């Protein structure tokens, strides 16, 4: 048996290096559309992924009084938890009052957050109808939607929040507009 | 007298040896009254067997006072946070049990056998990973800091709060994280054209949800499974958390269960209502994820009274979400003169570095400052410069130069200098 030549050694070394850093395994299990649908509760600002159903301001007020008011106060005035109403126009005053009405840029965020996280003691306990309704009620307190409003997957993304254009993205580390 | 590196008694480290003799003599005198071991026979712990082995070691009971700082919110015990007592610690690594906490609805007790991670959205193939599956992937270990966006926000108040460095700055922790590079998993799912964001969601009762630019997820982000060599603590996200080095704490989503790849950010509650920064003109900064260059002196600091004039080592922490710390300067005369502190190796990117500077205190009033610069050239702003960027009352991303005032009686106060 002859001694391997230098080029052969180099080739063997190259194979060894490749073996030491193999492509990562591909072990993820394909998720079915049904599995994704059950897990995905993200609502995008354009209304993407909003569920079916609808809710009115009047229904929402009843839900709010029963399940939200203890912490958030009468008509969203704030108590042990955040104030949710009022403050529109205050952001540049030096005494900003940040509420859903005055600060939040998208109404879809109200639906997304209430459904996933509220009430604090029983998150994800509200039906989609209740979430639409309580969203409608919250937005009605400051007249962002009329008292007669019924919100659903079509109408909710069309709601224009007072502070819709109030945010400047710094995602790149610098202001982007 | 040793040559000074800056005014007020800041010394060059090369003078330390020369100083050693004098300082040691003074120390011997001061410590004589408390000595109970050497010179008075064997203490009881030398004449009786010690405790037996234990399954999981705990810190010494002689340091029972070293605890996270914070009390539960009575109206919502799961929300709020606790702070790392940085004024009682040394080195750069935060003990796992003292890593600050910030929860948005409590710490979930997740059964790892029933926890899965879903990657979906703008991908070629949505995928589900169990913890056992993830354990079979190549892993990486990185020492990286996590800082809450609200850290040090109390320094926005008109009058300086007289509380410890841990109370003020304790929403910072530095750990070795081990896990799987996120780009490996995103590549396996196949990111589709048009994708620009990844929306991360936790399996806690807040369904904590944050949008992260895709570029950061494909860069140095990881799915962390281990913290300082053991499974991530429940308070930090067991069984897995997102770690995007350098970004504000809450966006490193704990108890990670879902990553949705999208073209646009979700504008979740915690990236609009919270963790956005209102400016004086009424507009707010959004997605300002990177934590800026920052430093804080932990010794001396409020509550750690100096015991008479003489030698002290000034010690503190510095970090930057943009990369490595390049330099930390220290002043004891309120910023009239500065000396470079020594950076304790290793100086790692997006990690806390310990800095130290020798100081011979003359017993007079002193104002201690530290000023960090990172490798991009960014330097900590003054408090006035920082405040001018934002509307009154804003406290996120506070990274201004901080000051401790030492009075002749040795007491240390939080001061604005």
Topology, pairings included?
The complex is a heterodimer of chains A (177) and B (417).
Chain A lengths: L5 H15 L8 E2 L2 H7 L14 E3 H11 L1 H4 L27 H4 L3 H11 L10 H14 L8 E3 L14 E3 L8
Antiparallel strand pairs in A: 2-3
Helix pairs in contact in A: 3-7, 6-7
Chain B lengths: L3 E3 L3 E2 L4 H16 L12 H4 L32 E3 L18 E3 L12 E6 L5 E4 H4 L5 E8 L17 H5 L2 E10 H8 L7 E6 L6 E5 H5 L3 E6 L2 E2 L9 E3 L12 E7 L14 E2 L5 E3 L7 E6 L10 E10 L5 E7 L7 E2 L1 E2 L9 E9 L4 E9 L8 H6 L14 E4 L5 E4 L2
Parallel strand pairs in B: 5-14
Antiparallel strand pairs in B: 1-2, 3-4, 5-6, 7-8, 8-11, 9-10, 9-14, 11-12, 11-13, 15-16, 17-18, 18-22, 19-20, 19-23, 21-22, 23-24, 24-25
Mind explaining what this structure looks like?
The complex is a heterodimer of chains A (177) and B (417). By secondary structure, chain A is mostly helical. Chain A has a domain at 44-164: Cytochrome Bc1 Complex, Chain D, domain 2, CATH 1.10.760. Helix content of chain A is 37%, strand content 6%. Chain A has a two-stranded antiparallel sheet. The N and C termini of chain A lie far apart (72 Å). In chain A, 35% of the residues are buried. Chain B has a five-stranded mixed β-sheet with strand order 6-5-14-9-10. In chain B, strands 7, 8, 11, 12 and 13 form a five-stranded antiparallel β-sheet that branches. In chain B, strands 20-19-23-24-25 form a five-stranded antiparallel β-sheet, with no helix packed on it. Helix content of chain B is 12%, strand content 30%. The chains are: A mainly alpha (177), B mainly beta (417). Chains A and B meet through strand 1, helix 2, helix 6 and strand 4 of A and strand 5, strand 6, helix 5, strand 14 and strand 16 of B. Strand 1 (29-30) of chain A pairs antiparallel with strand 6 of chain B.
